[in-house]
Request: fold
Amino acid sequence: LAKPLGKGGLRGRPFCVTIPEVSLTRGAQAPLTTKDTTMAINAPEGTRDLLPDEALFWNQFKQTAAEVFGAYGYLPIETPIMEQTELFVRGIGEATDVVSKEMFTAISGENLRRWVEEGKAPKAKSRLSLRPEGTAGVVRAVVQHDLVPQGAAPAKLMYAGPMFRAERPQKGRQRQFNQVGVECLGAEEPTIDAEAIIMLMRFYEAIGLDTSKLTLLINSMGCETCRPAYRDAVAQFLIDHEADLCEECRTRAHTNPLRAFDCKQEACVQVMKDAPLITDALCEECKTHYAQVKAYLDDAGISYVDDPTLVRGLDYYTRTVFEVQVKEGMGAQNAIGGGGRYDKLMEEIGGQPMPGFGFALGFERCILALEAQGFTFPESRTIECFVACVDASVKPQAFMLLQHLRDAGIASDMDHLGKSLKAQFKSAGKQQASYVLVVGPDELAQNALTCRDMDAHEETTLDLAKFTEALQNAALTEEPTTLGDIITSLP
Ligand code: HAM
Reply:
């Protein structure tokens, strides 16, 4: 069942989606599940669970980004994961692969029902897409909330979160992936371009990547003065070499000629070696801007490769573009970050003219790059203290002690499965607890507790009342404490 999505679709093109054969009844849940309930349900293709070690690393990664980018004046922003489809069509460009092939577009269940049952196609506003990238949403938010009024300092914004692209999944290429990105709106000076690139390289260092094993490619894409003529020259070049090009590049000649530089087909790669280069077509202003960006990078000791064929896959770029690639061990998906200047995007989506610059980096690809450099995830010490019970009769007292420990900020746990004391010590070891507190009926009768220091292999007896009081006092202070400090402070 295929229906055109409203008159005119996107920018006058009929927009077709295929609706799976489901019966939709008013007010009832559509039977969207398969009948075979024994079949295991896995994560969707191209998505990936971040299990605890990776999820902890993702938190650290975002924290490091906040610290590094914060030093350059960037502040956090959170925009919706869904935006109106039109934002991406206008902002990223209808002819880009990201928009024309890779967007996940959705309409609400109610709109879908009305469309199927009543033939009422959803209005443009109801067509929502999962964000394939973060720039368009941030720029939309800047326009909507007037974050850079006339004469104000540039807005420096950073974000982190999932992006969605319906690409063919492979190593380093997912359909849902996490990005950290920054956008600076309201300044066209080359210092902004240079400081953002320096900042990104500092970030890679901060997460432990050896930056000598990365290549920073940069280029200038020109501006509205010089790019149109260059674009036309490349289009003409493609038309002249049509016979030697793949089908997609033949189409690109008429839709998005510069993307032919990215084609991986050997025949196209050979043809594009003789294509006109943007370097020879830049206007004086763009040449000066680009030279200044590079001079600032030189001064900061950042090495880069000037690559006049770097065009990037999103249509909004003007002037500086850049990409960071891993030299070895990553396969085809070796770009761990990229971005550039977009001085026309603000107007494209309905705002006042305002220059912008930004970049985004892929979290999962950074993990692959770190692994290629020999990184292994640190084993996370999950708890500081394990409370062990000699037998089940003392469980209530052990449970209360556990609460006092946690209230004092000591990460602690106990056995919930009724395991033997030996097995409880094994669990404590697995969770890398520094201390095991043993609660037993004999010790409780004497208001005492055995404390085993797992690292020093030493055992001491604690006065339960005094220990509990010390924990309660620790819970009242703002200062972080360790169990070791509390134990040594006991009279
Ligand atoms: P992008 O180059 O499309 O730029 O994506 C930035 C980074 O996201 C890539 O370098 C890569 O590390 C990661 N990435 C992209 N697609 C995938 C995928 N399918 N699977 C895994 N990782 C992926 C942008 O998104 C622009 N918004 C950057 C920007 C910000 N330009 C200006 N401001």
